[in-house]
Structures are given as structure tokens and as C-alpha cells.
Write a structure and sequence with these properties.
This protein is of the alpha+beta class. It is built from three helices and 16 strands. It starts with a helix and ends in a 9-residue tail after the last strand.
Length: 278
């Protein structure tokens, strides 16, 4: 009898342990935004393409949300990005471009072509580019064989409503940093890939809305937010100049526009000169 009681107690304990273990294996939902996450979570989100669109700072000028790490100042954040942007410019000659101090342009006297890296730290594959464009519609101002994101994702040179860097937020009225460029664009405007690449992420969150990230050659990446429609899916190989999405008003916005951002080796960079503005 005692043996039966012990066996019953043992079975009950095992079943409880199994139930507890099963609860630990319950799939967890992915965070919807990067605000107030731990440093490790912030880095994971940033690499995955779910990084915040701006940072928030307290009265003393120290970052409290959406920043690289708590307590960093606007000036320190912008200096960090400026250093990464300079590193990205140093990679341009491999593709026949140079930064002349004002904007990125074709190098009229290119040096001997170097072997370009084919993976970034995200280890995303790089698209094979065809000599003949195969997509429609397309942006005719973007060469079909362009491998790095030079030029604008919209046609017609739309107005920039919010530049990259420090700004006063249009909703909160507080000084913030804006990690991209906002282009004015009516709902449903075609968005074009400025270079060949691979779709690394397509997602929806409460800040970016419908978002898209494309990995290009040499560690360059482009990010698009507030889309009304995404026309490509994760893993798609796309060609330079092809339409990939349509502008919208999803996420945290004050009206229809395109938020366009760039990364180099997984870290933010200033896209202003890369799109041809200064």
C-alpha cells in the first residue's frame, strides 16, 4: 500500500514538473516596438529591422527611450551615427562612387575595382542583378545594375518634411532624434528599391506601421515605414529600381508619408547624401 502511495505521489510530482516545463516552452510573441526594452532586446530589434524611428530625452538631455543605451545624449547618438556613416562612405569606391564632402556621386576616375564584400553582419544573401530590367513599374533614374542604395526611393524629388537628426517632435513637442528621412507622398505612391538586394524583413508594429527592410551589397540596408502595402515578401530577391511597396499612413504618423532610413553593417547611418540631398 505504501509503495502505491509513493508511486502516486511520484507520478503527481512528475506531471506537475512536466506541466511547468510545458508552460516554459509556450511561444512568446515578438515585441511590437523598441521602447523601454533591455539593452540586449534593443540590439536584437535593431538588427532585425524593428528599430525605433526616434529617441526620447528627459529635461537634462539624456535618452530615456528608443536609444542605443539609457542615458546617452543626442550629441553622442549623432556622433556615433556620423562615425558609422563615414565608414559607409569609405566603402563607396568599391562600387565606383565617392563622397565629395557634399553628396555621393560617380567617381570619374575610379581606382582598380576591388572585390566587394557579399555579406553584412546580418549575413543576408545579395541579389544577382540582371542586365535587363524585369520589373514594372520601375524607376528609370536608378541603374538596373546598381548594387548599393544611391538615389531616392520615390520619383519626382518629393519634399523632405522631416530630415535626419535632432528635431522637435510634431506630436509631443519635445526635442528628439529622428533616425531617417520623411518624404512627403500621397497615399499609395510607388516606393522603389534604390539598389538590388534581398528582402530581409517585412513586418507590422505600432510605430513603423507596415515596415520593410532590404539588405544590399557591402553591408548597406534600407528601411521603409508607414507603408499602406508591401508588394514583396521576406526572402525575395529584387532588382534595383523595382517597385517594392506603396506609401501609407500606418503606425505613428501625422499624415501619409514615407519614412526612409539606412543602415551600414547593422548600425544606423545618415541617408541624406546617399539620396542626393544635402
Amino acid at each position: 500500500m505504501m509503495s502505491l502511495v509513493k508511486f502516486a505521489l511520484f507520478s503527481f510530482a512528475v506531471s506537475c514538473m512536466c506541466a511547468q516545463g510545458a508552460s516554459l516552452l509556450t511561444p512568446q510573441s515578438f515585441p511590437k516596438n523598441a521602447n523601454d526594452l533591455s539593452f540586449v532586446q534593443d540590439l536584437s530589434l535593431d538588427v532585425a529591422g524593428y528599430g525605433p524611428l526616434e529617441s526620447e530625452y528627459d529635461a537634462s538631455g539624456r535618452c530615456i527611450s528608443g536609444c542605443t543605451y539609457p542615458g546617452i545624449t543626442i550629441e553622442e547618438e549623432l556622433q556615433r551615427d556620423a562615425q558609422n556613416t563615414a565608414m559607409a562612405y569609405n566603402n563607396l569606391p568599391q562600387y565606383g562612387y565617392i563622397f565629395d564632402g557634399r553628396t555621393v556621386r560617380k567617381d570619374t576616375e575610379p581606382a582598380a575595382q576591388l572585390t566587394a564584400p557579399t555579406t553584412s553582419i546580418t549575413q543576408m544573401p545579395v541579389a544577382s542583378v540582371l542586365s535587363v530590367r524585369t520589373c514594372s513599374p520601375n524607376n528609370p533614374s536608378i541603374p538596373a545594375d546598381q548594387k548599393i542604395p544611391i538615389g531616392e526611393p520615390l520619383v519626382g524629388g518629393p519634399r523632405i518634411t522631416s530630415p535626419y537628426g535632432a528635431r522637435v517632435h510634431p506630436v509631443t513637442g519635445k526635442r528628439q532624434t529622428h533616425w531617417g528621412i520623411d518624404f512627403a507622398a500621397p497615399m499609395g505612391t510607388n516606393v522603389y528599391a534604390p539598389a538590388s538586394g534581398t528582402v530581409a524583413a517585412a513586418w507590422t508594429d505600432s510605430t513603423c506601421g507596415n515596415g520593410l527592410r532590404i539588405a544590399h551589397s557591402g553591408g548597406y540596408e534600407t528601411v521603409y515605414c508607414h507603408l499602406s502595402q508591401t508588394l514583396v515578401k521576406n526572402g525575395d530577391i529584387i532588382q534595383a529600381g523595382c517597385v517594392v511597396a506603396k506609401t501609407g499612413n500606418t503606425g505613428r504618423t501625422t499624415g501619409p508619408h514615407l519614412h526612409y532610413a539606412m543602415k551600414y553593417n547593422g548600425t544606423r547611418m545618415d541617408p541624406t547624401q546617399m539620396v542626393g540631398r544635402n
